[in-house]
Design brief:
Layout: H1 7-22, H2 28-41, E1 52-53, H3 65-86, E2 93-96, E3 99-100, E4 106-111, E5 120-124, E6 133-138, E7 141-148, E8 152-160, E9 165-171, E10 180-185, E11 189-196, E12 201-209, E13 223-226, E14 230-236, E15 239-246, E16 250-251, E17 255-258, E18 263-269, E19 277-283, E20 289-297, E21 302-305, E22 311-313, E23 319-324, E24 327-331, E25 335-340, E26 347-352, E27 359-366, E28 369-374, E29 378-384, E30 390-397, E31 401-406, E32 411-416, E33 419-427, E34 434-443, E35 449-454, E36 457-463, E37 466-483, E38 487-493, E39 496-501, E40 504-510, E41 515-518, E42 529-534, E43 540-544, E44 547-550, E45 554-556, E46 560-565, E47 569-576, E48 579-586, E49 591-597, E50 603-606, E51 610-615, E52 620-625, E53 631-635, E54 641-646, E55 650-655, E56 657-664, E57 671-687, E58 690-695, E59 699-702, E60 705-710, E61 716-720, E62 723-727, E63 731-748, E64 754-759, E65 774-780, E66 783-789, E67 798-803, E68 808-816, E69 819-826, E70 829-836, E71 839-847, E72 854-858, E73 861-865, E74 869-877, E75 883-892, E76 897-902, E77 906-911, ...
Parallel strand pairs: 4-89, 37-60, 79-83
Antiparallel strand pairs: 1-2, 2-3, 4-86, 5-6, 6-7, 7-8, 9-10, 10-11, 11-12, 13-14, 14-15, 15-16, 15-17, 18-19, 19-20, 20-21, 20-22, 23-24, 24-25, 25-26, 27-28, 28-29, 29-30, 31-32, 32-33, 33-34, 35-36, 36-37, 37-63, 38-39, 39-40, 40-41, 42-43, 43-44, 44-45, 46-47, 47-48, 48-49, 50-51, 51-52, ...
Helix pairs in contact: 6-8
InterPro entries: Beta-prop_RSE1/DDB1/CPSF1_1st (IPR018846), Quinoprotein_ADH-like_sf (IPR011047), RSE1/DDB1/CFT1 (IPR050358), RSE1/DDB1/CPSF1_C (IPR004871), WD40/YVTN_repeat-like_dom_sf (IPR015943)
Main location: nucleus
Keywords: Nucleus
Length: about 1100
């Protein structure tokens, strides 16, 4: 046991051990002396034993593993007893899987939306035996569409998978009546699914792992070739894997074929029927390009190269397409070369092709005709003519596709990863083809940046006019709906809905399953209802086009054009030709006020003390006192008024677009103006001062903060006791509120292609103050425009336009000496602007020595980041108009810096080669020094600083949480990885934000929002996991399995070169949502295995999901 221990180390350790066991348990001072003695002699390695870590006792690396563990176990167990006896705080930190968790907090991650970008697609003509299916993968979402020329694509079903799909491959054995679907995932797992007609469902018939023990793995998408009998797949450099397609359209065992080359460019089967011969286009180590032919002996499972068929090609060859068993076409940048193999020396015939861009996707329309798409967004027709002639012609434009799927010999489907996907109809003969395209769908691009607008709203910028609004939203659960056109308004009355439609009033009810027609004789039904309110359990007030009525009383008033009912009274707007009159009645229909108006009026709103009248013609609102009938306040400066209401403490005016205004009834100086995008229709009272805004993008204003309302466009609505009745142009829906959660809403502007936006630095952030809050950068062609705007998605007023001669890098804003500055980088030029009177005024330009990749604000200074260093600048005010940037210092980094993030204390730098480093700034010396470092060599792509937590992501989409540890490395403190999570895809943006304080919280909660390259958003929340939850979560991971026999644990577990990092995995909160959606029997099984009842399990899930 001690043979590998140095004599000195062993002798000292043994002496310490003897000394330790001789110390009495009551002599705690002796234990402390022993701590110091050990710490002074032994160093540089942490102690791991029985899940305990003692930061005061680092042991030397020379000690054997068993000896260290045994000694440590005795030390710690003995010391714990002493500490228990003398009743002093525990000084040891528990470790989970070898890493410290000094506090109990953990992290939960949940998806806010489904992935959007398409990762692959395929068409199968006999998948279910009846009709063709278009299968689209969007990362972990698998969708099945039907298609015809009239309806286009129609979604039939979709499945959430525990894995990111890299490729979809139809496989069909010659003896099978159906085609199966091979799904290959980014982590090299695979699944084969099959439609089962008797069950009318999909079933996983084969699953496994395709990773090979030979070759270096490559990144997806993987190259694939398929024949009726076999499949070729490249997952590793210099290696292709061969699979036979066996009966029932399954895969046989893989056979590795090592290709002696520097790089495999392309490969395809030769059409021999048995799938035993294939062509490989390679680049060898002498930079020459060769075409090689391989043949497999299926009995011995060995490959042989047909050297007599090997030919050297032009070095710019990039693709091959097989014609038949003895000929193929090789594509170069300027020509298409037909190669014939059934001769002693392969014959080459070249045809010039007129395309300046490489061809990237091919669709085989018949044996001699291909349609291809190139990287320049061109659709190309390739025809193989007699006499080895190849004709190539451009037949139209196309958005770059990720899949080009032939539907028949004249129709095909082009599916783009982002942007527009379209159907293509080929018109004309083979020599004069024209492509007629028809849009099928439009997808946004990857998330480029996430910007915090407020503590409850973020904007995700995707480019090409696409943006995402991420908000906390009230989620709706639909109970029932009915087709109703022309709803003017509606109100909830107990369990009934009063609906005004086309000049009549109807009473509808809900029987628990569907909406039904009901009769109420005391309600006027032969006129449209203008306003309605329930005033007690059984009593109501109804205002129709001519009558004020209640359960027992009716009062005819003439032509009523608008009305408002408060808790105390009724305000009615009457019209007699061109004369307008406002009357106020109490609940007994006694008239308490009458005003003849000398202006045209459209709406009224009333409460206990005031009456508001709007005039759209004058774009003004007059507020009258009910005590004397005099105007006490006037409101104007509205673009146009959509609706107005009184709440408990505010008078609320909704503009048709952009804004909603809250005017305080107590303090005339308080005017809160909230930006809300889209077209608005009406205000729906919700609770106290909270209101719901109907329109294109329904929203909820709660506690004067904007939140989402998770329901599609609707015009009118009513709310009572968490029940909602909502009506659009053609449908009325009854819903229940399910609580709040973060949601993602897509916004598309055809005018503004936003590429970046930043919040203008402001030391006194007050959302109630009007004015510019953001600088927005948009691009149109080669012109880049800068705008100062109230909101990133508000109407933009032109400020500055520049020709983008040098590429736009980024911008940042600081507040310095009571001045607001914005610095923008174009190439090597750093331009400083000052914000004056809502305009950007250029103050100076600084030439940098090289091109940076990022600029950020560091307090009242700017940090400019390069790959090998970062530099610190601050404004130098020479005069009012001459303000320059002064360089304070710089800090050299590792040389491969990929991202920089900072708060007011630390600058975190993540490196492509050497993980994460923290730097601290010393104001007195104007220098940075290294404060902490993670010493694991793995490349990172992005990082963010969040108080004591440092979050970073590598290029594989693995997400890590780090903290500064108590141990030291050679340079500084250790940055320990405390938890991790496999996101499944690369990320493109990440932001730390704070959610508003809830009644049950003492302070705001810090969260993280992650934008993935497939435009899916993930929310990360910190929480303290109860012990019961841990048991429940373990059972969920065991029970839940997606289509493809895929487990959540395998999907979210981080792997470092096939080994697990020694830290816990963060919790997947999507499993909690899945549990709540299960049937009661399935919930019971999981809860029973977790040693709890279903109610407790559901309460745990609900309480944790409320954190999101």
């Amino acid at each position: 046991m001690i043979s590998d221990i140095g004599i000195d180390s062993f002798q000292f350790s043994w002496n310490l051990f003897i000394k330790f066991i001789s110390i009495t348990m009551n002599d705690f001072n002796s234990y402390l002396i022993l701590f110091v003695e050990i710490n002074n002699h032994l160093h540089s390695e942490k102690v791991y034993s029985s899940g305990l870590y003692n930061p005061f006792i680092p042991f030397s690396k020379e000690l054997s593993h068993n000896f260290r563990n045994n000694l440590c176990f005795l030390l710690i167990s003995k010391i714990e007893k002493v500490i228990k006896i003398v009743n002093i705080p525990i000084l040891f930190r528990k470790r989970v899987n070898g890493h410290p968790t000094s506090f109990k907090m953990s992290f939960g991650i949940t998806a806010l939306n489904a992935p959007i970008l398409i990762s692959d697609a395929a068409i199968i003509h006999d998948f279910d035996g009846r009709q063709s299916a278009i299968i689209i993968a969007r990362g972990s979402l698998l969708q099945f569409y039907s298609y015809n020329n009239f309806e286009g694509l129609k979604l039939r079903s979709e499945y959430k998978l525990f894995g990111e799909v890299a490729r979809i491959v139809p496989i069909h054995h010659i003896s099978d009546t159906q085609t199966n679907i091979l799904l290959i995932f980014c982590d090299f797992r695979y699944s084969i699914i099959r439609y089962i007609p008797k069950e009318n469902n999909l079933k996983t018939v084969q699953a496994g792992n395709l990773a090979s023990s030979s070759g270096v793995p490559i990144d997806p998408p993987f190259k694939i070739a398929v024949s009726p009998a076999s499949l070729l797949l490249q997952l590793h450099q210099q290696v292709v894997q061969y699979f036979q397609i066996v009966p029932n359209s399954l895969l046989g065992p893989p056979v590795n074929c090592s290709i002696p080359a520097k790089h495999i460019i392309d490969f395809d089967f030769l059409n021999t029927g048995d799938g035993t011969r294939f062509a490989v286009l390679t680049e060898d180590f002498s930079q020459s390009t060769k075409l090689q032919i391989y043949e497999i002996d299926t009995l011995s499972q060995t490959f042989s190269q047909r050297t007599n068929n090997t030919i050297t090609l032009q070095t710019d060859s990039y693709a091959i397409k097989v014609i038949d068993s003895n000929s193929l076409v090789v594509f170069t940048t300027a020509s298409a070369i037909k190669v014939t193999l059934n001769v002693a020396s392969p014959r080459q015939r070249s045809s010039t092709i007129y395309t300046s861009h490489p061809l990237i996707k091919f669709a085989r329309m018949d044996s001699t005709h291909f349609i291809a798409a190139d990287m320049g967004n061109n659709l190309i027709s390739i025809s193989l003519q007699d006499g080895d002639l190849i004709t190539v012609m451009r037949i139209g434009p196309i958005n770059t596709p990720i899949a080009l799927l032939p539907f028949d010999d004249k129709n095909l489907i082009s599916l783009a990863q982002s942007g527009e996907s379209s159907s293509i109809n080929l018109m004309g003969d083979i020599n004069h083809l024209i492509a007629e395209t028809k849009p099928l769908m439009v997808n946004c691009g990857s998330v480029k940046k996430i910007v915090e607008v407020s503590n409850n709203e973020m904007i995700g910028i995707c480019g090409d006019g696409f943006s995402h609004v991420i908000r906390q939203s009230l989620i709706m659960k639909e109970l029932a709906s009915i087709q109703v056109e022309g709803v003017d308004d509606l109100w909830i009355f107990n369990d009934e809905i009063i609906v005004s439609v086309y000049g009549q009033t109807y009473v509808l009810g809900f029987d628990g399953e569907k909406i039904i027609r009901k009769e109420r004789y005391e309600i006027i039904n032969n006129e449209p209802t203008i306003c309605f309110r329930q005033i007690s359990e059984d009593d109501f007030i109804q205002v129709t086009a001519s009558t004020l009525s209640s359960n027992s009383t009716r009062l005819n008033l003439g032509l009523i054009i608008h009305a408002s009912i408060s808790d105390y009274n009724v305000g009615i707007l009457l019209r007699n030709e061109n004369n307008f009159t406002v009357k106020v009645f109490d609940y007994h229909f006694n008239e308490t006020l009458s005003l003849d108006l000398d202006y045209s009026a459209e709406e009224v709103a009333i409460n206990k003390d005031y009456l508001a009248v709007s005039s759209w013609a004058e774009n003004i609102v007059y507020v009258y006192s009910l005590s004397n009938g005099k105007i006490v306040r006037t409101f104007s400066d509205f673009s146009s008024i959509a609706d107005m209401k009184f709440t408990t403490d505010y008078f609320v005016v909704l503009e048709t677009r952009e804004h909603i205004n809250f005017f305080s009834l107590c303090d005339e100086s308080v005017n809160i103006r909230i930006h809300c995008d889209g077209l608005h229709y009406s205000i729906i009272p919700y609770d106290g001062n909270d209101v719901i805004i109907s329109g294109e993008n329904p929203i909820l204003i709660q506690n004067l903060m904007l939140k989402g309302f998770k329901f599609p466009y609707f015009l009118k609505g009513s709310h009572s006791n968490n029940k909602f009745a909502l009506a659009d142009d053609s449908k009325l829906t009854i819903c229940l509120g399910k609580g709040f959660s973060m949601t993602v809403h897509e916004d598309r502007s055809f005018e503004n292609n936003i590429i970046d936006t930043i919040q203008i630095a402001n030391p006194n952030k007050d959302e109630s103050v009007r004015g510019p809050n953001f600088v927005v950068a948009t691009r149109k062609g080669k012109s880049l425009s800068l705008y100062v705007a109230e909101h990133p998605l508000s109407n933009l007023t032109h400020v500055i336009t520049k020709e983008e001669v040098e590429p736009y890098i980024g911008m940042a804003s600081i507040y310095f000496n009571s001045m607001k500055f914005v610095a923008i980088i174009f190439g090597q030029h750093l331009i400083l602007f000052e914000l004056c009177d809502d305009n950007l005024q250029e103050r100076s330009k600084l030439d940098l020595s090289k091109v940076p990749f990022q600029i950020s604000a560091f307090g009242s200074k700017f940090i400019v980041a390069f790959t090998d260093e970062f530099q610190l600048y601050e404004p130098d005010v020479v005069s009012h108009s001459d303000i320059r940037l002064k360089k304070l210092t710089n800090m050299l980094t590792q040389g491969s810096t990929s991202c920089l993030s900072n708060d007011d204390e630390f600058v975190a730098v993540c490196d492509e080669l050497q993980s994460l480093v923290l730097y601290a700034y010393d104001d007195s010396s104007n220098k940075f020094c290294e404060n902490a470092r993670n010493c694991i060599d793995f490349g990172l792509s992005m990082c963010r600083v969040s108080v004591d937590d440092y979050f970073c992501v590598d290029h594989c989409g693995n997400f890590f949480q780090m903290q500064i540890g108590e141990t030291k490395n050679i340079e500084s403190s250790d940055l320990d990885i405390l938890s991790c999570y496999a996101l499944g895809d690369c990320i493109s943006s990440m932001i730390v934000f704070q959610t508003p304080k809830k009644d049950s919280e003492e302070e705001t909660a810090t969260k993280l929002l992650i934008g993935k390259q497939n435009s899916q958003y993930l929310e990360v929340v910190k929480f303290d996991p109860p012990e019961q939850f841990k048991l429940l979560y373990t059972e969920m991971e065991k029970e839940f399995q997606s289509l493809g026999r895929l487990s959540s644990r395998g999907h979210r577990t981080v792997l470092f070169d096939n080994y697990l990092p020694q830290c816990p995995t963060m919790y997947n909160f999507d499993l909690l949502k899945m549990y709540l959606e299960l049937d009661e029997n399935s919930q019971q099984i999981i809860a029973t295995h977790s040693l709890m009842n279903v109610q407790t399990a559901k309460q745990i899930c609900d309480s944790l999901l409320k954190l999101t």
